[in-house]
Design brief:
Layout lengths: L2 E2 L2 H9 L4 E4 L3 H6 L6 E2 L5 H8 L6 E6 L3 H12 L4 E7 L10
Parallel strand pairs: 1-5, 2-3, 2-4, 4-5
Length: 101
């Protein structure tokens, strides 16, 4: 089951080394600004590249996009592929913390 998570809770998990963010936007969006440490896995590539980008199906992954639509779709796809510890962070637009460029 995919769980919704707030930015504050996600940040705590990241700082504790308990989860890694996964950006499912396009490469140009990622380059414009992403959550520090985020791995890029564009929504259209989830089924093809997930095993390479996020190989551990038991690890905690924080899935996000711009506004929350693509993150929900990507999380559902990943869950169907056997990933068990998924958190839908929604959109980076709601991320009040630092971003990398």
């Amino acid at each position: 089951m995919v769980q919704k998570i707030t930015p504050a809770a996600a940040r705590r998990m990241m700082e504790a080394g308990e989860a890694v963010p996964v950006d499912v936007r396009e490469p140009s969006e990622y380059a414009a600004g992403h959550i520090p440490g985020a791995r890029l896995l564009p929504l259209g590539s989830v089924r093809i590249k997930a095993a390479d980008v996020i190989p551990d199906q038991e690890a905690a992954w924080l899935i996000y996009c711009r506004s929350g639509q693509r993150s929900a779709m990507a999380a559902a796809q990943l869950e169907a592929m056997g990933y068990h510890n998924l958190y839908d962070l929604g959109g980076i637009m709601a991320w009040p913390y630092e971003v990398e460029r």
